[in-house]
Amino acid sequence: MALLDLANPSRFLKLADSTIPWLGGATVLVAAFAVEQAVVAPNDYQQGATVKIMYLHVPSAWLGMLCWGLMSVAALGTLVWRHPLADVTAKAAAPIGAAFTLLCLVTGSLWGRPEWGTYWVWDARLTSELVLLLLYLAIIALWRTVENPSRAARAVAVLTLVGAIDLPIIKFSVDWWNTLHQGASVFRVGGSTIYPTILMPLFFMAGAFTLLFFTLLLAAMRNEILRRRVRTLRLMQANAVR
Amino acid sequence: MMETTAHIDFIAAAYAAAVIVVGALIIWVIADYRAQTRKIAELEMQGFTRRSASDQPLRKTREAAKEEA
């Protein structure tokens, strides 16, 4: 099916209806396996059992950033190509991205207390991640503030593209500044510094989180299309009353 | 064993937070879907349907007529 075919909301709804149950089922299976792998994974020689918090913290950080990247592509879709599903994607993705970013910050704090002796420090990585959460909240607020959906979509698209500047800042903050947060240890030049018995469960968990993200995104996009249909029908109802 | 239980409260709190956040997302998506489908059903009961949806039987009849011709 071509990307243009999906521009038709009815076709997209059919695709979503048939895909969501399979994607949801795959998420449950992969998540069950990943959690089992995380439970039986060995403790880290320095962190001990708190390394198991990383299995939640790292995938939620990745997905919080991936979601903003996806919203940035959708923003281009709204401003440049005017793809009908672009702003639907952007609106549906924002609360999900915000939730994953919040989870990243919460689990990071819960890891930081036993390992660093504090829940929070204003270092560049933590602060730029907090900025990402605030940007998500600003996007959600903007969607709710502007009543006209197409005007809201354009305003949100501009803010999304401006906010995308935060993504490289998050990624490279540990290289550009002296931070308490450790540097890259999974994807780095010279290979990962994490031992495979700890690294593999992290990848399984990341796979489960990614499947969960796309299941939720498809479902939220379906809801958004239905919400717009409700709006259209209500306008018809209002015109009929006049 | 001591290493495993040393910070168990922080580990449990992190996994509880994940269950709460993911659970809230799932409940939000399902509740929203039910709310929107219910609203559409109510409006359609009142006779308000989208033009593309209400045209479908007519379009099918026209296509059938063309095929017959």
Question: What are the main properties of this structure?
Answer:
heterodimer, A: 242 residues, mainly alpha, 0% strand, globular, B: 69 residues, 3 helices, 88% helix, disordered C terminus
What's the number of helices of chain B?
3
Taking the sheet with the most strands of chain B, its summary is: none
Number of strands of chain B: 0
Query: Helix share of residues of chain A?
Result: over 70%
The whole-angstrom Rg of chain B is: 26 Å
Q: What structural category do the secondary elements of chain B indicate?
A: mainly alpha
Tell me, rounded to a whole number, the average pLDDT of chain B: 77
What spatial form of chain B do the alpha-carbon principal axes imply? rod-shaped
What is the arithmetic mean of pLDDT of chain A?
91
Distance between the termini of chain A: 42 Å
Sheet having the most strands of chain A: none
3D architecture notes:
The complex is a heterodimer of chains A (242) and B (69). In chain A, 78% of the residues lie in helices and 0% in strands. With 242 residues, chain A is mainly α. Chain B is mainly alpha-helical. Chain B has a domain at 23-69. Chain B is built from three helices and no strands. Residues 55-69 of chain B have low confidence and may be disordered. The interface between A and B is large, with 38 and 34 residues.
What's the quick description here?
The complex is a heterodimer of chains A (about 240) and B (about 70). By secondary structure, chain A is mainly alpha-helical.
